[in-house]
Amino acid sequence: MWRIVETEVFVEGETTRSYGIGSENTEISDISVCKNEIEEFVSLLNRLCASEVHAYELVEDFLGR
Predict the structure, then answer these.
(1) What domain range is 38 assigned to?
(2) Counted domains in the chain
(3) Which of 15, 18, 36, 45 has the highest CB neighbour count under 10 A?
(4) Residue 41 class from Cβ within 10 Å (0-12 exposed, 13-18 middle, 19+ buried)?
């Protein structure tokens, strides 16, 4: 099961929230500052039962769209 991971990042002199994805053994943070995009991505990963083995490729595809 995939979930949203929240972190705080320092961007252009300000602290802001950044969002990533996590599962049982894998966590990729700081993918996007847009929570809605990550919510949709996590929902898609869960619907498709996406494997942790392919997490980095899935994020790369997500960012390249």
Answers:
(1) 3-64
(2) 1
(3) 45
(4) buried
